[in-house]
Known about the structure:
Elements lengths: L7 E3 L3 H4 L7 E6 L2 E6 L5 E3 L9 H12 L7 H24 L4 H34 L9 H27 L2 H29 L4 E6 L8 E2 L4 E2 L15 E6 L2 E6 L14 H13 L5 E3 L2 H16 L2
Antiparallel strand pairs: 1-4, 2-3, 2-10, 5-9, 6-10, 7-8, 8-9
Amino acid sequence: MPAVGKKLHHFVPRFYLEAWAEKGKVHCLQGGEIFRTSLRNVAAENHFYRLRELSESDITFIRGAAIEDSPERLKPLHETLLRQFASPHAAKAHYEKHGTASPILLAAINRDIAEANENFHATIEQSFQPYLKSLRAGDLTFLSNDKDAVMFYRGLAVQYMRTNHRRRIELAMTPDNRVRYERTANVLTHIFAVNIGYSLFNDHPRLKLVLIENPTDVPFITADQPVINIAAKLKDTGAPSTFEGYYPVSPTKALLILEPNSEFLPKSITISALEAHFWNLRIASRAYRQVFAKWTKELDMAKTDLPAFVSCH
């Protein structure tokens, strides 16, 4: 049967990366090399969102690792998601066993396996676009509306989880456990993201949200992990106890989500070139695989100073 659905899946929206692009191309640092390429070719992986077949032990693992410790009001939502993500493979196995499915029905199931999760992410990304536009305009007033705040924090948490989780797993897991994680990652990513978004929304009244301005000649860079937890140590592989977010939204603006007494609270919303460079090193050090900039100068600077920064963090 021919392949179904799109093969290349983007895990950072192209509408986000456009702020660092010129004529649809961006400068990228990967594996120590800097090159210029199309936005279509970056922050993407073949079949990244494809649903994997879940065994009964996988489902038990998901419940124990993620759902049991979730807030009570979110558990039914997580169970629904788990059923939805497990059902296409279960249906395919049933029909193939009994030989009762038509080619058209099997093609529809295969399309669901290939595209359902990607479509789900696309819906979340589409709802997030207006908030990103507001951030780039220096406007945080949408957060005064609870519905908007819920959608914003959820979208931000989804972006944080989908590559951050995989990067941490690659660093920490044994090969056998990594195989199980790869099967369950699509479900776990959404569960943890909803939990983080829910927590951020509930904490919103006491958190400090700051849009920092960068008018210097060292513009902000970004990466294929564009939302990072600056409260977590770089080499920690366990679950962080606190979330403080850094999210560059353009070469001249970035969002900070901070605890009231955070060490990262800026003295001024307008930062210096040296401060911009340190923020660039932070985002580069947490990259999944790729770092992006509008010009090569910032990537050269990051590449030069990154080893020393990583060694002392």
